[in-house]
Amino acid sequence: xxxxxxxxxxxxxxxxxxxxxxxxxxxxxxxxxxxxxxxxxxxxxxxxxxxxxxxxxxxxxxxxxxxxxxxxxxxxxxxxxxxxxxxxxxxxxxxxxxxxxxxxxxxxxxxxxxxxxxxxxxxxxxxxxxxxxxxxxxxxxxxxxxxxxxxxxxxxxxxxxxxxxxxxxxxxxxxxxxxxxxxxxxxxxxxxxxxxxxxxxxxxxxxxxxxxxxxxxxxxxxxxxxxxxxxxxxxxxxxxxxxxxxxxxxxxxxxxxxxxxxxxxxxxxxxxxxxxxxxxxxxxxxxxxxxxxxxxxxxxxxxxxxxxxxxxxxxxxxxxxxxxxxxxxxxxxxxxxxxxxxxxxxxxxx
Length: 350
Fold this sequence. Notes:
By secondary structure, this protein is mainly alpha-helical. The protein folds into two domains: 19-151, no CATH class; 159-344, no CATH class. 39% of the residues lie in helices and 3% in strands. It is built from 14 helices and four strands. The strands form two sheets. It has a two-stranded antiparallel sheet. A two-stranded antiparallel ribbon has the order 2-3. The longest helix has 21 residues, at 159-179. 38% of the residues are buried.
């Protein structure tokens, strides 16, 4: 077996740099794109013909063995390439064309003359804030190279947004701890970390997907929810649909959180899911804060539609202790899904 020949030029990764960000810098001297470079050096699964390459982000497509091989070619420590990303692989953003940044982090680097780059943690679908600066992440066409551009990206949050920000950051921190095997403290009596992530995945997919229905005017989509919430929190939930599209939908699959480019849209989905996953919906939800629709009242829409039956089926494998405590209609002796309130009457799935 031939030993891999190191690349003549291969700058080392910056601290916590996103894999695709580093590959762009490695490929630049050869006038290649990252995918072209991976194909040229024979890194699986990009070594085959173009039509067989995965339509995934590079970090999602490359396995541990591929990253170790790439590290040998670049003469760098394999741990610098995100070998531990396997715990979050299904939650990594789906497209490398999307650049996600914290304007405050980038501005700090530009002011000190240090390299400005995209962080790996910013590319996790369940992360929409910079925890260091408690600043909303934003989508950009490229990493800003001007301090003034970064300053213009920084929002001035109102008092209500500060409250919402604190709630969402805590929820996102709970998700990050679940990736490490730690169940959210508020929910550990009813589920473990793996079960929490599965329920989070199911509810966020339900929130994100624009479900098929003949009554589209009465079934709330994420766009509608985000628009209503943006009236109160424009800097957190307001978004502008980019030319390339906010959503990336693979064929024959449900649309999930990691296929949304705009962090503001992901924040809207996470806010809805946070309320639904944590608060018992009966006798009536009592939120300290309501933004537009209350989560349990309008989360499902008020007409039967495709997503309702899908979620009911997914929910059958949720922990019985969680279902009994948080979801009316789940009974310990059976597996009947009745819905969470009266507006869902007629949408039962047995």
